[in-house]
Amino acid sequence: MTHSNVDTETETKIYQALKKERSDLIKARHQKLKNIQNLGKIPFKSKYDRTHETGELKKLHVNLSPGENTGVKVKIAGRIMAIRKHGKAIFLDLKDRSGSIQLYGAVDFLKEEIFEFISQMDVGDLIGAEGEVFKTRRGELSLKLEDLIILAKSLRPLPEKWHGLKDVEIRFRKDTWT
Questions:
Q1: Which structural domains are found in the chain, ordered by start?
Q2: Whose CA, among 31, 50, 169, 172, lies 20 to 30 Å from 178?
């Protein structure tokens, strides 16, 4: 067996493992879609009226001090880029065409059904969020969630931006595998 055959066999095994992992992920997302429908939610909306874009919010509240609330309620929309759970709190990074903002939700102030609904969200989902703008103690402009709706459920994962294949030759071969 030559060195190139070993590389090809290894690449094929890696591809098969990635393909199965991706298939499992897509199945899990389809199950979350069914769960959302069972909660009585419509997972694909045709319209959402937002009041602001994230870039606009950042410009409006640039002088806000860390830990300060604005008292301003807004409606924004965008794609979930990250989800972080910390005990009874959850943080979502929302990105729209003008920038990104952190969404903050906690069991203390969110209705239980909304908190449960958030657990069905995935990176890549398009959502509409409503809440009060504030700045965290660390100085990050955020939105304290009051309500959240799904605009479009992402059934496939977003492309890997940071962890994709580095070797150009393998990347092109992988493209021909699919």
A1: 37-152 (2.40.50.140)
A2: 31
Question: Do the beta carbons of residue 76 and residue 53 sit within 8 Å?
Answer: yes
Q: Which amino acid is at 142?
A: S
Q: Are strands 126-135 and 89-96 parallel, antiparallel or unpaired?
A: unpaired
Q: Is 110 left (phi over 0), alpha (psi -120 to 50) or beta?
A: beta
CB atoms near residue 162 (< 10 Å): 4
Q: Is there a contact between 123 and 80 (Cβ–Cβ < 8 Å)?
A: yes
Q: How far is CA 21 from CA 18, 42, 70, 92, 135, in A?
A: 5, 28, 44, 24, 38
Cβ-contact 156, 26 below 8 angstroms = yes
Residue type, 11: E
pLDDT in tens, 30-59: 788 788 788 777 778 788 999 999 999 999
Helices (H) and strands (E) in the chain, counts: 4, 5
Residue among 160, 156, 162, 157 nearest 174 (CA): 160
Degrees, nearest 5: CA angle 129-88-55: 30
Contact 117, 145 (CB under 8 A): no
| pLDDT digits 0-9 by tens, 139-160 | 999 999 999 999 988 887 777 7
